[in-house]
Fold this protein.
Amino acid sequence: MAEAQKFDIVINRIVDAPLDLVWRAWTEPEHIMKWWGPQDFTSPSATVDLHEGGRFVFAMEAPAYQGGGVSYTAGTYKKIVKHERLEFTQGLSDADGKAIDPASVGMPADFPAEIETVIEFRRIRPDMTELVITERGWTPGQMMVFSYAGMHQSIDKLGASLK
């Protein structure tokens, strides 16, 4: 059976905040916990070991109307160019950052076990930053759409958290 064609999700957004602050929003736990996750979700914890080969684990708590469960995303930093670029893997994990099979927690078959991600940071002017977020290797389907929408909602929250 032929493997399904894979696609990249690419999101280009302008955040009304200085580059250094937007960088810190992606790399410092106290900032990440203010915005990680889509609308109505919260992030009760985040750990970051910010160096190439270092790992991160971000918690995401669903709102009560969606059951209130906590899930985790973990990954490894592959490339870091301060104020310019973050490259990392990400995938579902337990609270300690150990990868878990998405199917084992009821995710559909089109949910990737690991997603290669690149975040590009570009200064537009002293008080504005462009983000280009690329998630590689998605199979077209409902989970790809949810990821796209969820990242837009998360970036909305990121921008609001920096005001």
